[in-house]
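Render this sequence as a predicted structure.
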Amino acid sequence: MNHVERITSQRGVALAVVVWFIAGMSLLVAGIVAQARVDTRMTQLHIAKATAMASGDGAIQLMMVDTLTGPPDEETPLSRTYRLGGQDIKVFLTPISGLIDLNAAPVQILAALFYEAGGLSEQESFALAENLVAVRGANRARGGFKLSALEDLLRVPGSSRAVMDAVRDLVIVSESSGGATNWSQAPEEVLAILARADPTRAESVSARRDNTMRSNSLRSTTTRGRQGSRAGGYRADAIVRYGDQLWLRRRWIALESASTSALPWRFSRTEAPRVIVENIRFQNEA
């Protein structure tokens, strides 16, 4: 090989090394950019969650103050809008006595719940309802258990995450099994469950309800709550918009003071913020 050929060969090797180096650097840069995008999205997600928690909790506290300190004869609305941090936050209070208790509801109500809201067939709904009642009635030695959280519904044969998510806005999981639904305080979606299970009773309840009774339900609920009844609790839902998404901050409230607070209520359970869609019940009521 003469001198010219050697130089040409060395140039070819050098060019190949440069090409491979550029290719390697391109992959490295692409990986860094992709990771940066993931980190940015995660940061934005954490900021959105923190915003939903802070704004939602603040609005819920204000709602409770307005509810418990207003004149006794003043109509108390089921929802209010508060402006915090430059944005409007909608808060809804639902008396938990008007929700369906998974630890207490009979088979007929549960079957109607799983059919109307859960999206199951009549046969599947009834089977799941029977399974739930059977599990509640069995002692632990025979595999039974009392639901302590909504997620325990997944342990019942025939249930699924889709069913659990579909019914979560209509139910409560009480600590005891003695709480019956107060249909006069039930949301319209819960009354639809009763209408399927017991049309005559649903018609009677609807005849007794009017707008004044519904708007006053929180005040009467508060009075009974101080005597320790299950009706003394609320589910508070705060709707917070962050960017182009709506976030739900949900907290469960008992009308009794906590040992570490002078406030006449305490939070018995707090759910993590989650993204919701525009056309859910809260937006329709807003």
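Summary. Residues 214-231 have pLDDT under 50 and may be disordered. Strands lie at 79-84, 87-95, 100-101, 171-172, 233-242, 245-254, 266-270, 274-276.
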